[in-house]
Amino acid sequence: MNNVYYGKLIFELTKEGRKGYSLPKNEIENYGIEALPAALTRGEAPALPEVDELTVVRHYTNMSNNNFGVDTGFYALGSCTMKYNPKINEEIAAHPFFSGLHPLQDVSTVQGALEVYYKLQQSLAELAGMKEFTLNPYAGAHGELTGLMIMRSYHMSRGDEKRTKVIVPDSAHGTNPASAAVCGLDVVVVKSRPDGTVDVDDLRPLLDDTIAGMMMTNPNTLGIFEHSIAEIAKLVHDCGGLMYYDGANLNPMLGKVRPGDIGFDIMHINLHKTFSTPHGGGGPGSGPVGVREGLEQFLPAPRVLRHEIDDDTYHYSVEACDESLGSISGFLGNFAVMMRAYTYILTLGRENVKIVGPLATLNANYVKERLKDVFELPIGGVCKHEFVFDGLKDKSTGVTTLDVAKRLLDYGFHAPTIYFPLLFHEALMIEPTENESKETLDAFIDVMHKIAQEAKDDPELVKTAPHCTPVRRLDDTQAALKPIVTYKELLEA
Questions:
Q1: Are the CB atoms for 215 and 188 separated by under 8 Å?
Q2: Domains parsed from the chain with CATH numbers
């Protein structure tokens, strides 16, 4: 590309002595204010790039154009529900009435914000079939930990201290066993059947009076609905355990099935997945946790409660319950993310929220059926929001799932999730979400077919991809183990 800024670091554009700013003379001492103590100042100037303003503008504009996001193209990332974030969500969350709030304000001055908290809690409870929600957790994994802490608090309150094990399917998200371990619980793995669902026969012998509960994602990581969920819930409840619902895959269930109605006692929801708030790159996130009736007293503190003054007037308070598991976050979670999620719910309304799940399911099955002629489908039948291929059908070419993912970048598509779940050697997980049009899906399908043909006709072309990106194929292992994070390290490398 004929662009002096393309693919370069800002330090590579530096010219000694060049500046892009002009600051007034420091006259702070003229006002009787002492200069900063020497211990708080630098001994030498920081090693910053020296560039003019136009270079800065063009550099970062070019950088932003190189970023891939859901606003620029199809994001087929499986297991993460990278759906479009409506711009009205951003406008509402950025409104000064909301963005200017401070968490230390007196409760009397933030009644409107607390009303949003309360109504979002109620909306999520209605959509999930739960009694009450807390919005305090900052992310899905944080929600998992909170839910498991509630599970432990419930058993401890009954003096049942021997329940220290949690059953987790072998197809679970990696955060499930990690959250259980952080919570001080031992993980017991239950196997899957050939169709990808939990093996009930393998589950039965695992159930005894040491089981605190069972974590399940439904639909599971393979995008398959757990058709034995009623039987599983009964078995776990009969042994005294609780059922935990990992809400990472709630998107295809939205408006069709409520986890609380099919036997789950505790659950978390990823607002940044199912309810269209931005995520990726570490945040921002929100993982509200809901509980069935009888467990609400264990929710973390503080909680937003509503008190009726008269028929049309309410007062909102922030309180803690004596039986609460305690505080798990600063204040009440990520308010801006909650504003986005609540706006999304209100925009859809009661009727339109019912079509989210069916459309997500329709899109996933459409893509799956159109591609199963060239990609290996290990588990057939109807999927929900996502599905998993086991690489290309033709293994003789030597083209791997990684190669396919890299080649997709040349065609302007973000690669799906690869090598997860671990049940298949060449796993390629695709989740189109309900937002994508048929035209977009068809374009993606055509490119996937083209890559499959390239793998046969010119496998080296695919194996050496990408060819049209600022950086070619990296050494993924070295990039993870020995990342170069500063310009100085780059010069030394």
A1: no
A2: 10-66 (no CATH), 88-353 (3.40.640.10)
Nearest-5° angle of CA 371, CA 373, CA 378?
A: 85
Q: Decide: 245 and 257 in contact? Cβ < 8 Å.
A: no
Q: Residues 271, 277, 280, 284: what is their CA dihedral angle, to the nearest 10 degrees?
A: -80
Are the beta carbons of 451 and 407 closer than 8 angstroms? yes
492 Cβ neighbours under 8 A, 6+ residues apart: none
Mean pLDDT of the chain: 92
In angstroms, the first-to-last Cα distance of the chain is 25
Query: What does the pLDDT read at residue 32?
Result: 66
Which two structure tokens, joined as six digits, stand for 126? Answer: 């209605």
pTM for the model stands at 0.90
Three-state secondary structure along the chain?
CCCCCCCCCHHHHCCCCCCCCCCCCCCHHHHCCCCCCHHHCCCCCCCCCCCCHHHHHHHHHHHHHHCCCCCCCCECECCCCCCCCCHHHHHHHCCHHHHCCCCCCCHHHCHHHHHHHHHHHHHHHHHHCCCEEECCCCCHHHHHHHHHHHHHHHHHHCCCCCCCEEEEECCCCCHHHHHHHHCCCEEEEECECCCCCECHHHHHHHCCCCEEEEEEECCCCCCCCCCCHHHHHHHHHHCCCEEEEEECCCHHHCCCCCHHHHCCCEEEECHHHHCCCCCCCCCCCCCCEEECCCCHHHCCCCEEEEEEEECCEEEEEEECCCCCCCCCCCCCCCHHHHHHHHHHHHHHHHHHHHHHHHHHHHHHHHHHHHHCCCECCCCCCCCCCCEEEECECCHHHCCCHHHHHHHHHHCCCECCEECCCCCCCCEEEECCCCCCCHHHHHHHHHHHHHHHHHHHHCHHHHHCCCCCCCCCCCCHHHHHHCCCCCHHHHHHC
Q: Determine the pLDDT at residue 41.
A: 86
Residue that is written with structure tokens 């065609």 in the block: 411
Query: Residue 203 and residue 338: Cα distance in Å, rounded?
Result: 37
Q: What are the backbone dihedrals phi and psi of residue 60, each rounded to the nearest 5 degrees, phi first? A: -75, -25
Q: Which residue has the higher pLDDT, 403 or 483?
A: 403
